[in-house]
Amino acid sequence: MIYHLLRYFSNFLSETLHFYAYQYVMFRAVMAILTSLAIALVIGPRIIRWLMRKKIGDRPEFHHAALNELTKEKANTPTMGGLIILCSASLSTLMWAELGNPFVQKALFVLLWFGILGGIDDWLKLTATARQRGRDGLHAWEKLIFQIAGAVLIASFLYFDFENIPDAKLLWVPFYKKGLMLANWTFIFIAIFYISATSNAVNLADGMDGLAAGCVAIMSLVLAFLCYVASETMARTTPVTWASYLLLPHIPAAGELSIFFAAILGAVLGFLWFNCYPAQTFMGDVGSLPLGAAMGYGALVTRNELLLLVIGGVFVIELMSVVLQVGYFKYTRGKRLFRCAPLHHHFHLAGWSEPQVVVRFWLMAAAFAALALATLKLR
Questions:
Q1: 167 is in an annotated binding site
Q2: Where are the domains of the chain?
Q3: Is residue 164 marked as binding?
Q4: What average pLDDT does the segment 293-299 reach?
Q5: What is the Cα–Cα distance from 205 to 211, expressed in whole angstroms?
Q6: How many Cα atoms sit within 13 Å of 19 on the Cβ side?
Q7: pTM (predicted TM-score)
Q8: Which residues pair with 57 in a beta bridge?
Q9: 225, 248 contact by CB (below 8 A)
C-alpha cells in the first residue's frame, strides 16, 4: 500500500522533489523488516492477553515421563502466538511489496492457507477435553490432505508463471554451473513434496522456547537474499544481473519476494521478544505450518530446492531424527535410537539446559546458512 501510494504521489511532485528510494527492492525490504518488527512488538502483548483471556494455553504432553517433568512449568503458557507473526508479516508485505506481482500474491496465499490449517489444528488440540476427543488435533491424514491440496494449487500456478522462463524449468544443483532439465510432472511433484515437507519440518522443531523462530529468522534472511539476486541487476546503469554473475537461475520479478521474506524476518524477530526463554507464548501450528510452507515456496520460486536442504539443515536434521526414530522403533520392536525425537529433546534429556539447546541449534543454523551462501560463489 505504501509502495503504491508513493508511486502515485510521485507523479505530482516536481522533478526536484521526486522520491526514488521506494523503487529499490533493497530499501523496501529493509523497511519491511522494521515495519513488521514494530507491528509485532505492538500487537504482541495484546494478542497474548487475548489468548490468556480465552485460556488458550498449551499443556505439553510427550510419550516420555522425564520430558513431561522437564516441561511441566509450560502448562499455562498460551499457544497460537504464531498469530503475531502472521499478522505482522502480512501487513508489512501489503505495505511495502508490489501487490501486482504474482509471486507476492501466492506468498500471501501460502501464509493464509497454511495459517488457517494450523489454526484449526491448534484449536482442536486445545478444545479436546470439552469435545472428548484425543489431543492430537487433526489426524495426520487430514492435515496431509490439506497440505497437499495447498501445495497442488501453488505448484499449478507456479508452473504457468514459469512457462516463459527457461531457467525455471531446470533443477539447479549446488556446485554445478548449469541446471538439469526437468519433466513437467517432476516439477509438480517436487513442489508438492517440498511445501508439504517444509511445513512439517518447522512444526517438528517448534518444541523449545525460541528454537524454531530463531532458525526461521536465519533462513528468511538467506531466502530474501536469494530472491534478490534471482532477478535484480548489479547496478542501475548495467543490464547484468546478479544471477548471471553467480551462475544462478534468473527468475524475473522474483526480487519482490525479498520484501516478503524480509517481512517474515522482522515478524519472527518481534515474536522472539515474547518467545525467548522463558516464553510468554508459543508459536503453535498456526505459526509453524505457514512459516515452513513459506520457506519451501521461496526455494521453489528461486529454483534452489536442493540448496534449501543446506540452508535449513537444522530442520532437515530434526525431521530425519523423527523418521529414523520411528523406523528404528518399529524395526527393533521397541528400541529407541535417540532418547527422544525430535533431536532437540534428545539433548535436553542428555542434560543440556533448554537455553543451551536453543542457542547451539541457532549456531548450527547460522553455520548451515553460511555454507549455503558459500556454495553460490563456488559455482
A1: no
A2: 2-377
A3: no
A4: 95
A5: 7
A6: 14
A7: 0.91
A8: 78
A9: no
